[in-house]
Specification:
The protein is of the alpha+beta class. About 65% of the residues lie in helices and about 10% in strands. Strands 1, 2, 3 and 4 form a four-stranded antiparallel β-sheet that branches.
Length: about 325
């Protein structure tokens, strides 16, 4: 039993030794000419630093002829940085004769920028489409829509990577310059004849100020004629004016109808008053008989006058109707 326990202790000690002291990495470092002690590897484990990241980074920098402090690498690793990409960026910058210090590369990496991609862009400029997809629409002074797309060649500016604006800012500024240039053109034909004027005007604005890039060139990749926006706006305005006029006419018509109905109501009211007044005549005649102010002969004379007037009205009405019925010669 003691022998079995002793074997278990020996095996556990071996695994702990292999974990805390990666002998294989130590041998690789020694074979690469890097001075690395087993105590340094053991200390990395205690400091919760992955030696499988630090040691290969030191070997890469040593083979590239760069001198990188191990403590600085561990500090950047503990800060959450990407050690491998930082070292590769330093090697690429050194080969391209770019002035990139280790501290600057760490700052760029911790700022969330891809420092290796930035170095590659500094050496090999890349092209950005503005806008990213489709065409950018603008309207010339003659009301014709012109759609364009630009290709912007940029190079990363290492000094302005920390705190500098990203690609979206370049795209937005270039788009603003395209819209302004097309809007300033007298006609759409002027834009189609000289599309290089757009790139010249946009490039003169210094759009890369405050960004992490340096604009090398702006080329108009595509120009197309769109709709007649001016005519469409005029048509829409005419339709709107027509609707307003129709609404006002309808309002006047409704007011006229209301006035007509009101006049009809007043006419009926007046007729009612006339009927009411006529109903008082028999009462007045009866009152005159009772008071002795009207005799029987006077009453008959009044009736005769009424009958005579009625007959004349009928005769006059017949004559008028007969005149209307006569055919025209």
């Amino acid at each position: 039993m003691p022998i079995f326990a002793f074997v278990i202790i020996i095996v556990a000690f071996f695994f702990l030794f292999v974990y805390f002291i990666p002998v294989r990495l130590w041998i690789s470092a020694i074979a690469s000419g890097v001075t690395m002690s087993l105590f340094n590897l053991f200390g990395m484990r205690l400091r919760k630093v992955d030696p499988y990241v630090i040691v290969p980074s030191i070997i890469m920098s040593h083979k590239a002829g760069l001198t990188v402090n191990t403590d600085a690498l561990e500090a950047h690793y503990l800060a959450g940085g990407d050690i491998i990409r930082v070292v590769k960026a330093l090697i690429s910058a050194d080969k391209a004769n770019l002035d990139l210090k280790f501290e600057k590369a760490c700052a760029i990496d911790l700022a969330g920028r891809d420092v290796l991609e930035a170095v590659k862009t500094s050496v090999n400029p890349k092209v950005i489409d503005a806008p990213k997809s489709g065409l950018l629409s603008a309207v010339a002074k003659d009301g014709i829509e012109v759609r364009a797309r630009a290709r912007v060649t940029v190079r990363a500016n290492i000094e302005r990577l920390v705190g500098g604006a990203v690609e979206d800012t370049i795209i937005a500024r270039v788009g603003e310059g395209i819209v302004t240039t097309i809007g300033s053109a007298a006609t759409y034909k002027a834009v189609l004849e000289n599309p290089d004027n757009i790139s010249k005007n946009v490039l003169e604005r210094g759009l890369d100020a405050g960004t992490a890039f340096e604009i090398l060139s702006i080329d108009i990749a595509d120009v197309d004629v769109g709709r007649n926006i001016g005519a469409k706006l005029q048509t829409d305005q005419a339709d709107a004016d027509l609707k307003v006029a129709q609404a006002r006419a309808e309002t006047r018509r409704a007011m006229a109808v209301a006035q007509e109905q009101e006049m009809k109501a007043r006419t009926e009211e007046m007729r009612a008053r006339v009927v009411e007044a006529e109903s008082e005549v028999p009462k007045a005649i009866a009152y005159a008989f009772r008071e002795g102010k009207l005799g029987i002969m006077d009453y008959y004379n009044l009736k005769n006058i009424q009958a005579d007037t009625k007959m004349r009205d009928q005769i006059g009405g017949i004559d008028q109707n007969s005149d209307q019925d006569k055919p025209e010669n």
